[in-house]
Design goal:
The complex is a heterodimer of chains A (325) and B (262). Chain A has 11 helices and 14 strands. Chain A has 325 residues and is of the alpha/beta class. Chain A has a 6-stranded mixed β-sheet with strand order 6-7-8-3-9-10, with helices on both faces. In chain A, helix 6 links the parallel strand 7 and strand 8. Chain B has 262 residues and is mostly helical. Chain B has one domain. In chain B, helix 2 runs parallel beside helix 5 and helix 6 packs parallel to helix 10. Chain B is elongated and about 55 Å long. Classes of the chains: A alpha/beta (325), B mainly alpha (262). At the A-B interface, helix 2, strand 6 and helix 3 of A face helix 1 and helix 4 of B.
Chain lengths: 325, 262
């Protein structure tokens, strides 16, 4: 994967809505078969990015390429390769679940038999078999989102654009969608996913590009981003004060007490993304130090955002799909 | 990808995509008939109101008021339908993301708009059929013949479609069902009241006649009246066709451009 030219490329994409700059020279790259997460708070330009890639919106300047095709001059070729699902679940409320999927199959020009088969497989996989004959207007939010994702998967497009696929979903539905997205990526689909959830990017993405106020502020694998922040550590809880002193003597400068002086917790710094020093723990056990609790702390992408912008994830305006002047 | 057959001939592909989306649009007709019923109700209410409430006070030389009224009511109904089914229906599709989904699929670029027009033409036919029944019930009769009546039908549908293009443009400009409905309905009532739809122009003050004579609805109604009730047809039909073609020539390119811009 490392040697390939990127399959999705954004090259200095810029777009304004009137006086509001939505994207400011944004560069992105995703290798074929990888998952790229575009991470950022509301209003940072995530949806605009997806709309440009999905041929729905033109950039003012810069280029976007999907599988070598320019989204403007090669729009037809791009549309043949992509599936799009968004936070607004563009399913037709007056069609049944099955009709929604078969319509997309028809518009992807699948033969009637293949439309039905694709719909069957996806309804089954997404747990919508029982609801398949009901109008989508009767679906819950989570069901609509799953149907929307299924519609994006009809015809197995090699590229998926998912605009905040789990925003507003309950934790269970979110995990279900994560599994599904992971499956698609595992099967070789290239995925561009936008999210405001650090956990989601961490869980699904090979590469993460962090957007803040229409600009790219960081890019890298989740591990690389976290390495920038550092602060990985191991926390041992040693209740007995004597044992704690013994442990500290043994660990030397590697350990420091966490928090207050009488704290039972010892903190051991770890290299970013580094291994947990099991041998050291075994040594402690041999010396009779009883550890009642042990926790590995890795920086979250939340910490990354804080580190990069010097402020917590801002509470921006609610997302504005397809904003216009 | 293997199943993603390339369209054999672009024109055939466009027809196939248009038919697929039209079927989707028409399915809504049976499942959510409210928009269509709204246009029908508007038409029926106006027929009852003018036939029985105001009609007694309106003098229409040369024909009964029912005969005078119905051509106006037909045109009113098709403009109302352009506002609700075309304008509001398309604005709803824009807001729901349905149009985005269609535009992200490998379909003919013309298919979404032409499907909207095709399915709305089917709705217009249904509406006109229903209004014809209403007209006959309140005493309206065709005084000319089957040929002119069919020409009248064609003219009514063509005028409705022309107005639909204008409403499509409005929907693309406003993007919400509420705004499109408010603007479209205001426009529709202004155009139908300030026209020869319900009262002869001669009864209006001079300045209002000037406005009514600059109103396409007047020409559509006059032509339809000539085709259904009688009188010279050549000139009114020419004018109505000219207005219809003109409306399409202005609003279809505007709507298409706005749609493509995304």
């Amino acid at each position: 994967m490392a040697e390939q030219a990127p399959f999705l490329i954004a090259d200095r994409l810029t777009r304004s809505y009137g006086a509001t700059v939505a994207l400011d020279h944004v560069d992105l790259a995703a290798a074929e078969g990888s998952v790229l997460a575009v991470l950022g708070p509301n209003g940072c330009g995530k949806t605009t990015t997806v709309r440009i890639f999905a041929t729905l919106l033109r950039a003012d300047s810069g280029r976007a390429l999907v599988g070598g095709h320019d989204v403007v001059t090669g729009a037809a070729a791009v549309r043949a390769m992509i599936g799009l699902a968004g936070q607004y679940a563009a399913v037709d409320p007056f069609l049944t679940g099955r009709e929604n999927l078969e319509l997309v199959g028809e518009l992807r020009h699948l033969p009637p038999g293949a439309r039905r088969r694709h719909a069957d497989v996806l309804l089954e996989r997404l747990g919508l078999v029982d609801a398949a004959v009901r109008l989508a207007r009767t679906y819950s939010g989570g069901m609509r989102r799953r149907l929307d994702l299924a519609a994006a998967l009809i015809g197995r497009p090699p590229v998926l654009f998912l605009d905040e696929p789990t925003t507003g979903l309950d934790p269970r539905s979110r995990r279900e969608l994560w599994d599904l997205i992971g499956e698609q990526a595992g099967a070789g689909t290239t995925v561009l996913l936008t999210t405001q959830y650090m956990e989601e990017a961490d869980r699904l993405a090979d590469q993460v590009t962090v957007l803040d106020r229409s600009r790219v502020i960081a890019t890298g694998s989740p591990a690389e981003l976290k390495a920038k922040v550092g602060g990985d550590h191991l926390e041992l809880t040693v209740p007995d004060p004597q044992q704690r002193r013994a442990a500290q003597a043994l660990l030397g400068t590697r350990a420091e007490p966490a928090g207050a002086a009488e704290s039972q917790i010892l903190r051991i710094a770890l290299p970013a993304g580094g291994e947990v020093p099991i041998a050291l723990l075994a040594e402690l056990a041999r010396c009779g130090v009883r550890v009642s609790d042990l926790q590995v702390h890795r920086p979250t992408l939340e910490d990354v955002f804080l580190h990069l912008t010097g402020q917590p994830v801002p509470a921006g305006p609610t997302s504005t799909r397809g904003r216009r002047p | 990808m293997s199943a993603n057959l390339l369209p054999w001939v672009p024109a055939m592909a466009a027809v196939r995509d248009t038919v697929a989306i039209s079927r989707r649009n028409l399915r809504r007709l049976g499942r959510a008939p409210n928009l269509l019923l709204l246009s029908l109700t508007t038409g029926v209410l106006f027929v009852l109101l003018f036939r029985y409430v105001f009609g007694g006070a309106i003098r229409t030389p040369g024909s009964s008021y029912a005969d005078y009224l119905m051509p106006g009511a037909f045109i009113l109904t098709v403009t109302a339908s352009a506002v609700t089914t075309t304008g509001v229906g398309f604005a709803e599709d824009l807001a729901s993301g349905a149009i985005d989904r269609f535009r992200s699929l490998p379909i003919a670029r013309s298919a979404v708009l032409s499907a909207r027009m095709l399915s709305d033409a089917v709705r217009l036919l249904l509406l006109i059929a229903a209004m014809t029944v209403v007209g006959f019930a309140v005493g309206f009769r065709v005084h000319t013949g089957i040929g002119p009546a069919l020409a009248g039908l064609a003219l009514t549908i063509a005028f409705g479609m022309a107005f639909s293009w204008a409403m499509l443009y409005l929907a693309l400009a406003f993007r919400t069902a509420e705004a499109t409905q408010a603007a479209g309905q205001t426009l529709m009532f202004l155009l139908t009241f300030l026209s020869s739809a319900f009262v002869p122009l001669a009864t209006m003050p001079g300045w209002l006649q000037v406005i009514a004579r600059a109103n396409p609805v007047t020409y559509a109604v006059d032509a339809l009246r000539a085709l259904l009730v009688g009188g010279p047809t050549a000139r009114p039909v020419q004018l109505a066709v000219a207005w219809t073609v003109g409306l399409v020539a202005v609003f279809a390119p505007l709507a298409v451009r706005r749609y493509r811009r995304g």
